Amino acid sequence: MTIREMFAGGPLLSDGAWGTQLQARGLAIGECADGWNLSNPEAVRAVAGSYAEAGSRVLLTNTFRASPLALAGFGLAERTAAINTEGVRLSREAAVRTGAFVFASVGPSGKTMATGEVTEEELRRSFSVQCEALASAQPDALLLETFGDLEEARIALSAAKATGLPTIVSFAFFAGGMRDRTTSGVTPEQAAIAMEEAGADAVGANCGNGIESFADICRRMRAATTLPLWMKANAGIPEMANGTVRYLTTPDDFASHLAALLAAGADFVGGCCGTSPDFIRALAKRWPETTLAERKKQESGACESPSCL
Question: DSSP string covering 79-120, please?
Fold first, then answer.
């Protein structure tokens, strides 16, 4: 099934943050979250299940840092295949009850080519190993998320496309005076254009900013590409309080921005850092039943409602 076929009935609600949900279940700060796919699978399955029950139509996998390069820092590189396939299996078990899609998460390597920390070939090999392992477990799509460097994203996308699975590439925009660039200075327009040219099936943004900034990022991406758009904002910009990171946006405040985000062209909406099943439930309560009809009118040039403009 293609990405467009997945949301043929209208935009889809994705899930929320995983790291903080695992921490609430005992994951220690600095511990390898992905390793829990093998050491604590019940907790991982519980996170996926909590989002499915909250209304998520797309569930991610607990594999964000499960490339060989990233896992090597925890002494788990040799368990790459098992960690990734188990991650897909656990989310699929949760998805079966509601019919949700499973998108396998792939994060950046955490290493920089520009400084010589890693070579292009090492990146390509690492992403290929992870994507092949994920694909063997048959997720519905691959999600390359929280990328900041265009060249690393291109390398990861090439590895993902070799599996034959639909692939979304999502960037984190939070740098610059307007907080609208990635750490390497990439704008939403540049990311959208580059990924469409590289063959991505969808493009988007996650992390970095609170949801109040995402409608503008979404509009800018929509103006630059016809690809489907993936949007997962944080629960605001984090603050430190007594050595603890806090996100101050409430679920209702977060959900109040849904209409603007859908009107800006988002095809998938969910939450990133600081969000929880409560945020997904708040979004689900506001999910519009008329979105598909308005979209069809917009495409035909017949829609004059504010959400079509």
Answer: GHHHHHHHHHHHHHHHHHTTT-EEEEEE---S--TTTTSS-H
